[in-house]
Amino acid sequence: RKDLDRPPWPHGELFITMGPIKVLTRAVHKVADMTMFLVVGNDYTYIYNVSWEDPKLDHQAFKPGPNDNIITIASAGCNVFDYLIEGSRVTAVDLNAAQIALTELKAIAVQKLTFEHFFDIFAKNKVNLLKAKYESDIRPLLTRRSQQFWDSHIKTLKNVMYSGTSGMLAYIVCRVLFRLIGLGWIRHTVVERQSTDEFNAAVKKNGWRLNFFCHVIDYLISSAGFAMLAGVPSRQLELGLHRNNNFQTVFERICSTDLVHDNYFYYGYIAGEYSALCCPRYLKRENYNALRKSLNEKKLTLFEGTLVDALKADEKQKYTVASLLDHMDWMPPSMINEEMYWLQKRMDPKGLTVFWRSYSEKVHSAPLQWLKPKQVPDEGDRVAMYWSTWCAKMDGTVRYDLRTTSWSKTPPKPATIFDLVSTGIKIVTFPVLQSFAKKSVVAKHQLPEHASKMEAFYESQKDEYDSFREQMLFARPVLAECLPIRRPASGGKMVWVDVGGGTARNLEFFSVETIKENFDKIVVVDVSLSLLEVAKKRVAAAGLSGIIECIYCDFCDPAQVQQKLPKSGTCDLVTMSYSLSMIPDKAGALQSAVKLLKPKGEGVLGVADFFYGGGRRASYGKGDRDGITNILTRAYCEFTRLWFKQDHVILLEESMFDGVRDKLDFDMVPQERFRRRVPLLPLLRPWHGCLMAPTK
To answer: CA–CA separation, 214 vs 249, rounded Å?
Structure first.
């Protein structure tokens, strides 16, 4: 609502740009994450006593019906029951056994209790009635795991509405903070007076108190670790830390809904109970028989574990809908890719609708972007805490596959301490010895200037190259997880050029079967003859010589590119894995990549490399283009840049890509940025990054 003025303190800017405070905040987030996953992993209690996803949007996006077989997250069971009311068959999955126990308790209660008793327990918090019915009517039908949970928890249960960690957080906010800050009028107008008009008038009158309240909530959630009580891990929280005053926006959205008659998500917490009018659909009398009918027909399957575990467990199931709530927000690309792979294997022959919510305004991960999802209009979302909602059709056009660690016939040689030390010495001493090594290479191979440097650098390292780089090139597997495997619009299979591919190790993240099934041609390009020699042996041992070609080529030389590589505009993928930083003419290399790629989004450039800074995403939208937010960070990045420059590695900056921004879309697919230590140099923690840029 525009009645609420933004508070004068830009606390998001304060807590992110101040170096020591940023470090402290991240430490708090790590402790909160550990605590939350300890609760979930050990099934101490449930987090959600209410499912915090508005089912109205589900109906708008995919209209669940009797012909649907839906797999979803159990949470508190609210949305699960909503699907069952429509006659859908549902598999509800949760890693937390306590959430399964809560959903199962409600399901058994629907089957065994009258509507009046069920409503009294789960809407009006008549816990004594639940305890009276538990032993005789409910417990005998519970699974053993759920029996164990409720046998130890039902005695201490005092209030269903404020149970679980999210209920605890709601109690702190609605029963403690409201009183301390002078917001008791919210309960008075919404619950006692049942007046939307009086509530709206009070909002205008108490603007400064609401501003202060929103600031406190933002601080508790964003910086003080209270997000763990709501089941929000730091990776998900970070998707919105570039926005100031998140809860201010949430409160404005809440005020635009009907808190008295319709928005049960907040009415329940404010009142401490539901009303007959303002409650989830499964608590309404007119839906009770339909819900009971579906449960009696055994249309609900509960599964404790991950979604992947559930999909692996029953190969006969074919799903029409995957309603994934917001749980992918905290997943890295590898986990999302794996989940999409198993959903693809279990999708209905007619296709699968994938539906999810996000705390990010955009699609937050590359594997999801390749589905070409459409944003679902979410005006009027009663939860009001998500910044986007997405729906995509999985029909086999994009293929998800599990990545591998190596081809079975060429397992990577494990790095020994001697390997790390000896290779490290070669790298560190190369700036001193390079003139002598380069003369030897020129005399032996008659190579150009840059190629001579690269061959001199790698000739003595080729045998230990892969084992040492496994400890250093951390974005390389991330790039493999983010690359799309797609069916070309023109038919046939894909064409891939890997620039600076060296020993062809980059290709091993894709199985031999995946390469044979999806690629017509793969070209490994490099200027190091020693590394290409290793690559040819690896490719031959895997039986892929008919698909993969290893070529000596200076990628900055347009004549060589035109002569030796595929025709312009015919490549689906061009990748540079830790090679662009070592190419002198970066602008020329990027232009060569653009020329090779198919136009109009069919071609994709993928880059994994060392970066100067963490970028706008890692710095939560603060600082400059490279994500540098303060002088200390700048000094450290400069030191890192100078260190790597000794070995002709130039850390990538955002400005280096400006020459091709008119031809490539760098904003469509989110980047990944993170820091890792360099072997033997624990104080050196450069930024690693992975970016994907489709053609325009």
So the answer is: 9
